[in-house]
């Protein structure tokens, strides 16, 4: 089958049918199936192995929880969340499960088509309104395990000396880690870094 194959899973029939109709009108897009819940998503992935599988976050069975099963059944399928949820927690959870895109339902058909093409090109797509949150997620994800340990202790109010004692490291080593942490998080000081690190931890 030529073109980009797409499956759509959403528990609101009118919305799902509207998306399907809009995408079908685009010359190189082929909608190969529709579903309403996580079980349908898994079945569509196994049966059709679509290039793109659009999932609603809050559908029965949970869209985010369905990602892992879909990837197992059809490794080449790129999962994109198409959802009304602008909650940061949902975005971060989807990205951690390796979703390739996160599109807010307020997007028009042109933006959705652009998102699909972006993902098919190998890049990640996140709706513009959510991109600042993605930046924070990416920055925290760049921290090493040791840097996270240092930052979490700093967030508890421990000094470099006491962090060093807790981790059995020299104080100058802790200072080096803090310099790296501030740079990676784009923070001006320990307090700002601690706040950003805590936000990232809460959203894992």
Automatic annotation (TrEMBL):
Keywords: DNA-binding, Phosphoprotein
Domain of life according to the entry: Bacteria
PROSITE patterns: HTH_LUXR_2, RESPONSE_REGULATORY
Annotated ranges, domain HTH luxR-type: 136-201
Gene3D superfamilies cross-referenced by the UniProt entry: 3.40.50.2300
GO MF, any single term: DNA binding
SMART domains reported in the protein's UniProt record: HTH_LUXR, REC
Coiled-coil ranges per UniProt: none
The protein's name in its UniProt record: Two-component system nitrate/nitrite response regulator NarL
Organism of derivation: Rhizobium lentis
């Amino acid at each position: 089958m030529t073109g980009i194959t797409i499956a759509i899973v959403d528990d609101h029939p009118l919305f799902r049918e509207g998306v399907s109709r809009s995408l079908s009108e685009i010359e190189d897009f082929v909608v190969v199936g529709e579903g309403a819940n996580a079980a349908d998503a898994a079945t569509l992935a196994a049966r059709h192995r679509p290039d793109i599988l659009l999932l609603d976050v809050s559908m029965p069975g949970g869209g985010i929880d369905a990602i892992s099963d879909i990837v197992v059944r059809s490794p080449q399928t790129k999962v994109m969340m198409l959802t009304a949820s602008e909650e940061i927690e949902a975005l971060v959870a989807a990205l951690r499960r390796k979703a390739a895109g996160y599109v807010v339902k307020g997007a028009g058909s042109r933006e959705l088509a652009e998102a699909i093409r972006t993902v098919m090109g190998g890049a990640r797509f996140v709706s513009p309104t959510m991109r600042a949150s993605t930046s924070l997620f990416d920055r925290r994800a760049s921290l090493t395990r040791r840097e996270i340990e240092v930052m979490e202790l700093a967030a508890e109010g421990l000094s470099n000396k006491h962090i060093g004692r807790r981790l059995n490291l020299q104080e100058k080593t802790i200072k080096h880690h803090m310099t790296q942490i501030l740079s990676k998080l784009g923070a001006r000081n320990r307090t700002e870094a601690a706040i950003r690190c805590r936000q990232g931890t809460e959203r894992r």
